[in-house]
Hints:
The chain is an alpha+beta fold. The protein has one domain: Alpha-Beta Plaits (2-Layer Sandwich). Helix content is 17%, strand content 11%. The chain has three helices and four strands. The protein has helices at residues 16-20, 67-75, 92-95; strands at 3-5, 26-28, 33-35, 55-57. The strands form two sheets. The chain has a two-stranded antiparallel ribbon. It has a two-stranded antiparallel sheet with strand order 2-3. Strand 2 (26-28) and strand 3 form a beta hairpin. The radius of gyration is 12 Å and the shape is globular. The termini are far apart.
Amino acid sequence: MTFIVGENCIKCKYTDCVDVCPVDCFYEGPNMLVIHPDECIDCALCEPECPVDAIYSEDELPGAESEFLFLNAELCQSWPNITEAKLPLADAEEWKDKLGKRKLLELD
């Protein structure tokens, strides 16, 4: 099992989760993070650290976000690994509670 970064990370990209990850399994895209499913050890340390509740265990991923299981696995192959926290996106506070952000995902 793995943890998944879901839609609510889009346009926010808080990195509190990165600091607590013991295996450095987060990868950074232009406007969100993803978790590498083969590197995640299912420790659950990242989930409570996310200020926008964008991280789910695979078995608790909402049905409406099921494509993020695939997206995390695919995008971690081309995005760089992130091992230290950074500042969130400049307008993260404006986006943190917005719904329907999937269409805003930047792939490169």
